[in-house]
Structures
1.
Amino acid sequence: MVILETKDLSFSYPDGTVALDNINIRIEEGKKIAFVGRNGSGKSTLFLSMNGTHRPGKGEILFHGKPLKYDSRSLREVRKNVGIVFQNSDDQIFAPTIYQDVAFGPTNLDYPKEKVKQIVHKTLEYVGLMHLKDKPPHHLSGGQKKRVAIAGIVAMDPEIIILDEPLANLDPVGADEVMDLLNEQSYFGKTIIISTHDVNLAYSWADYVFLMSEHKIISEGTPEEIFVQPDKLKAAHLRRPATLEIYEEIKMRGLAKTNCCPRDIPDLVHSLRSQHLLWVDVPPEVKEGDYINLGIFYGEYAQNSAYEAANCKVLHIHDDGLAIAEMDRKAFRAGSIGIYDTAKYSREDLLSIIERDGVECVGAMGKKSKLIAEKDDIYLDVTAGVIDRSILNALAGQRCLILTHDGMVHHAMDRIRAYMEKSGINIPVSVINPNPEEQSKQDVTKSMMT
Ligand SMILES: Nc1ncnc2c1ncn2[C@@H]1O[C@H](COP(=O)(O)OP(=O)(O)OP(=O)(O)O)[C@@H](O)[C@H]1O
């Protein structure tokens, strides 16, 4: 369903500078959208038009199919539902304390004081800044300010969250924290729109991309469609994403499977053509193209450990039932990924799981979980790109544990399952401490994995 739409939208600043020239876009509800384009192409102006700050010179903007109106009541309504996080947090944060800053939006919505307090506490908890609530915002780091700015918007519970260059000036860990927050909001059904110059981010993160140049949309589509158009990328002053560059090089050397478009490192790893063919006996129900589990390899057949699990793709089946199969990986040890919901955290419980399951790699996703680990001295091997890193480590045979909470538990599960479906590789994955009502879902998952 389309949530936001522009029709023939044009806008010029009072000094005559043309900033938007006949923009026609449709944004689907619940999607992750990236606007990518060179400096001055019009991204910020478009965003400010989307929440009614700029009134178009020509054309119109539709929210849920209804044209935006510019009287103060209608603007208040649209700004409650279309929240913008500015590129520079100092343009957004102005109250004397962090608490007051986040409370500004809900207070303006005329919520009672107690409800405002509840919302602010929940939101500050969520962005991991509760311990700083009485501090003045100008004492914070860039990454913390960005999280306050996001909290101020999230506190209004808008349907669309727009972020202008959300990762500008953030260090890699700060950037990952912001992306964690956005992914979680997306998982809760929000439509997330960002602008960025970072082609790697747009390519790996977005569901849909708009390329902008010279105040116009010059191309739109899925990341796989957009980032394989060299002329369009050139016009928008952009490069190809690194994963695609590497993939092209691998492909030119005959080392890649054809027709795949890797979007992240696990995809890239999976795109490598196997060098190993083998003969296997296959049961009658197996068809050409099926992936089959070869079970466990021992001793000299295993590469990295005493025993390893191996998968293969059946390329051709002879009449006598013998088949030629391509091993997707020479062999990989049976690693696994456990997900621990820190909403039900206890230090003893977690440490005993790590001990009991022989966990070799612990990662934390989301500020709340990272703070818990830090406070209780739980050593984290991974704090950035946690899901992809855990997939890669599990493929290399490690037993991994991801600490996370609430919606992120499902987000991690979904991402890992999507990888398994795409690659045909089974990684045992489970929520280690599910809610009782989720236990039954979990049992179904476990039976699928075995
Ligand atoms: N207040 C203003 N008055 C006049 N011109 C402006 C104003 N703000 C932006 N512009 C001009 O409008 C055009 C679009 O600017 P905009 O900030 O929307 O681009 P952008 O794509 O967000 O750029 P960046 O990537 O650098 O943030 C540019 O030519 C810019 O110089």
2.
Amino acid sequence: MSTPPANDPKRPRRIGSLKLLWPFVRPNRTLAFGWLLFLALSSASALVLPVAVRHMFDHGFRHSNAQAINGSFLALFVVALVMAFATAARFYCISLLGERTLAALRSKLYAHVIRLDVGFYERNRVGELTSRLGTDTEVVQALVGSGISVALRSAVMLIGATVAMVWTSPRLAGLTALVIPAVVLPILIFGRRVQKLSRASQDRLADAAAIANETLNAASAVKAYAREGIESDRYGDAIARALSTARKRIGVRSILTAVVITLFFGAITLVLWVGARDVLAGTLEEGVLAQFIFYAVYSGGSMMGLSDVWGDVLRAAGAMERIGELFAEDATIADPPNPVALPTPVHGALRFEHIEFRYPTRLDAPALHDFNLDIRPGETVALVGPSGAGKSTVFALLLRFYDPQRGRITFDGVDLRAMTLPELRGAIALVPQETVLFSGSAADNIRFGRQDASDEEVHDAARAAEANDFIQLLQDGYNAELGERGVRLSGGQRQRVAIARAILRDAPLLLLDEATSSLDAQSEAAIQQALERLEKGRTTLVIAHRLATVQRADRIVVMDGGRIIAQGTHASLLAEGGLYAELARLQFVA
Ligand SMILES: Nc1ncnc2c1ncn2[C@@H]1O[C@H](COP(=O)(O)OP(=O)(O)OP(=O)(O)O)[C@@H](O)[C@H]1O
């Protein structure tokens, strides 16, 4: 029998997925214990209250005993005080437990997801992931922070009130027991449907979040193509789908509530009617009936609480199941069990041996095919070739975003798969084509290259990357907020921030992906100088789009269709004619 895929909406949801929560609750055992203690205390005091009321009837009213009445009221107030304190303490413990669980769950989930492979991010939409981090974890928190509390309190009260009812009047209690199945049955039947619809509505919400995330992140592209209307409709449709699922869920749950209340109060009314007739017939005391009424109301309230919370439990089970699926995702690119260290100092020799590589999402077409390349320590190699030749793929494999299907890459003789990811990536500085700025100051953004760098080192790196001058001109200089909602930098300025990061990283292997965007002559000259300084003494691989870059390189590797088709110096390749001569004629704008 085959298991349906995790995202199949028809897959049965299991309450069992809630056990995944235990590791997050466990560290807060003291709070959970405190909560149980105060729960017992508050429930006990609530159960004692009706006894005080009966006492009032029996000893106060019947015998017109003022002394007894005073005593009864004092006792009543003391019991109420205990109940107030215990309830507050119980609320404190359980709410804090919920918040702590949520915080731990979110942090762990983020830490897990951020470590997953690049391939995972190609298969999943980021908006959907943030929705899981936000909405799904909140649903779970609602359960831990209040749902479980209500459930257990209701269960304790229900049991307590039931025992008390039997003790107060076995005849009335027996009558009540007869009608209970009529109340429990609909909860079970409707509950399952609510659970299914809950998960579906969470899924639809995540879909909508993914659309919003994608288009809001590319707002200028949406505007440039005047697609605001189309995108609004697309998002509107997704929200409408989420709404329609939510409406179904609310509908089913409303029916459930109405049915339960009707049946329950119908049953209680019936029982009390019988009780009232017994009092009239003189076979039951008023005090006993009063006490029984209290317990009946308690048990009614608890039933209600339970049916309400059952929906929350099912919703949380749906959410936890989705979270569980994320936790079950494993990074396929991981550290080996017995990692080999790079030699110290690192020399920077690279070797690609018979590499065959297809992207996991495109297994039909090889991105690199029998790719062989030897790079000496300290050498600067320029990769040139038409668009789609596989140049960026070489970088992706060096960074171990993917592993090749065949062949191996060695770094100072060590197979990349034999060393840890921090060891490998720590030895690489990447200057990507598109520099991503993060929220934070200019200094923070440069420090992205090396977290523990001092201010002095950050400034030196900026100076070497020709970034110091424009940063000084920003309103707050190095403290100027870059990234989201910060200062907008030009393409050339961003690139210099990226170069400053790479300088700060001071890694033995440098990967440069040249931007195709044309920089003005002055910035280009400045960047070339900065790069030349950076390349000195380290192995450099550069995806070259500019003539100046290839002229600076020790060797040029010409790629086409995932293979190396020629290599040499600028002059030798020009003399050979072929693809390189053609690209040179076109000025490398690939
Ligand atoms: N993430 C990916 N998933 C699937 N296929 C990909 C992916 N990235 C690149 N490819 C494919 O792999 C081949 C090589 O792409 P690559 O990005 O390495 O080319 P490139 O030489 O760097 O091109 P450009 O100069 O345009 O950046 C192309 O056919 C491309 O469509």
